[in-house]
Amino acid sequence: MKERKTRLWVLAVIFCICGACITTCSSSDDNSQQPTVQRITERGKLLVGTTGDYRPLSYREADGSYWGFGIEMAEKIAERIGVGVEFVQTSWPTLADDVLAEPQTFDLAIGGITITDTRKETMLMSDGYLVNGKTIICRSADADRYQSLADLDKSEVRVMVNPGGLNEKFANKNLTHATIIVYQKNEEIPNQVAEGNADVMITEITEAPWYVKNDPRLAAPLINKPFSHGEIGVLMRKGQDDLLTLVNAVIAQMKADGSLRKLHEKYGLVYAY
Fold first, then answer.
1. How would you list the strands of the sheet with 45-50, edge to edge?
2. Alpha carbon distances (Å) from 41 to 47, 80, 81, 197, 244
3. Phi, then psi, of 71 in degrees rounded to 5
4. pLDDT of 249
5. Backbone φ and ψ of 209, nearest 5°
6. What is the pLDDT at residue 23?
7. What is the pLDDT of residue 3?
8. Residue 204 phi, psi dihedral angles, 5° rounding
9. Which backbone phi and psi does 189 adopt, to 5 degrees?
10. Angstrom distance (rounded) from CA 203 to CA 12
């Protein structure tokens, strides 16, 4: 009888432990499946990944502050949720890995991110809020020299690109004869061109006007004839459909009320919606 009671006591203890484990695991699973917007609201801030090297869409000053078109878009999204915003540094080579990182480092990424089918295979991308396309920056004195892709694709032409992004991929695919120079800091490449350390920078029609406006040594002769056409959107991991819906609603509202157009005008960008 004593042995039977001991067995029953052991079984009862095991049952209680298992029950506690199930409750804990269930609670953990519920938390992991909690809607993204709700988690952001409870946290009290939206975590936004951005490169901070892409004027005028996302730029990080020496004091750590951020400004730009994409930065203001992120602030609008945070405002819709009703929280503050905190910017988290990422980079073009690590962008996808950072979006998919475990544990999650930020809720979404913004600032010059082109919507592509490749990205949409593994991640979510919002509707477009800014049109873009590949173009070049060169020295003003050489503007007449570069009027086509063929003019760039020559062995004597030094083309500079930042690593890991679509600019590098475009150059490697389309400029097989030119000399490709990979330079780590995207925001310093225009000055490298102006100083004569490279002849051409592959960039976007969203980025080129700012540098040309702020440095008379530079020109963008093909700004109205981009090599490609696309749109820029907000990037996030899959499973955050509620956040994607909210972001798209913000973009749609800004298009409807004219605030997106005003933001384009503020930063000297082409509005096409």
1. 84-89, 45-50, 108-109, 235-237, 123-125
2. 11, 11, 7, 48, 15
3. -65, -40
4. 98
5. -55, -35
6. 37
7. 47
8. -115, 160
9. -65, -45
10. 68
**Count helices and strands in the chain by DSSP H and E runs:** 11, 15
Contact yes or no for 111/57 (Cβ under 8 A): yes
Question: What is the pTM (predicted TM-score) of this model?
Answer: 0.77
Residue 144 DSSP label: G
204 pLDDT exceeds 80?
Answer: yes
Closest C-alpha among 94, 227, 216 to residue 164: 94
- Tell me how far apart the alpha carbons of residues 251 and 77 are, in angstroms, rounded to a whole number: 9
Taking Cα atoms as reference points, which of 123, 267, 137 lies closest to residue 199? 137
Look at the block and give the residue holding tokens 């988290």: 88
Q: Beta-carbon neighbour count of residue 180 at 10 Å?
A: 16
Q: Give the three-class secondary structure for 100.
A: coil
Q: How far apart, in Å, are the Cα atoms of 151 and each of 34, 42, 69, 77, 157?
A: 54, 55, 32, 42, 9
Instruction: Give the residue carrying structure tokens 């991308």.
Output: 125
Cα–Cα nearest to 215, from 93, 55, 44: 55
DSSP 192-226: HHHTTS-SEEEEETTTHHHHHHH-TTEE-TTTTS-
